[in-house]
Design goal:
This protein is an alpha+beta fold. The chain contains five helices and four strands. It has a four-stranded antiparallel beta sheet with strand order 1-2-4-3, with helices on one face. The chain starts with a strand and ends with a helix.
Length: about 130
């Protein structure tokens, strides 16, 4: 069993949020190595893991505030994902939609953060993303 720690940090360079995470054993010993980290993600079989590794740009770097190694979902596609939360061809998401929560709901699923509630408006988008991964 592993313990996942998640942080959301704003990227000045990309002007979007970035999801950082670390994985440790129960005693706090860091789990290192990409393969070891991916294998600790809950509810994923080998085929799903292979697809996720190909489609999710996960890198490792020092956490910007904690200055210790963390994995992070690269922000290169975050603006695209945030734009996808707009409905009916609008240029921006509707005002009532919590964009950061929506982004976290979609991005977090890729790295084992499965308990973030997904707004009902984004369920079709999540299903589209999942079908692309299948």
């Amino acid at each position: 069993m592993a313990v996942f720690e998640y942080h959301v940090v704003y990227s000045q360079a990309y002007a979007v949020p970035v999801l950082y995470f670390s994985v440790t054993e129960l005693d706090g010993t860091p789990i290192s190595g990409d393969e070891a980290v991916w294998r600790h993600l809950p509810n994923h079989d080998e085929n799903t893991l292979a697809q996720m590794r190909e489609q999710t740009a996960v890198s490792q770097a020092d956490h910007p505030a904690l200055q210790r190694p963390f994995y992070f979902v690269h922000p290169c596609r975050t603006a695209e994902m945030l734009a996808a939360t707009a409905v009916d061809g609008a240029a921006t998401p509707p005002a009532e939609l919590n964009v950061v929560l929506s982004w976290l709901s979609l991005t977090g699923r890729e790295v084992g953060l499965n308990n973030v509630p997904l707004p009902a408006e984004l369920q079709p988008l999540a299903e589209t993303i999942q079908s692309r991964q299948a």
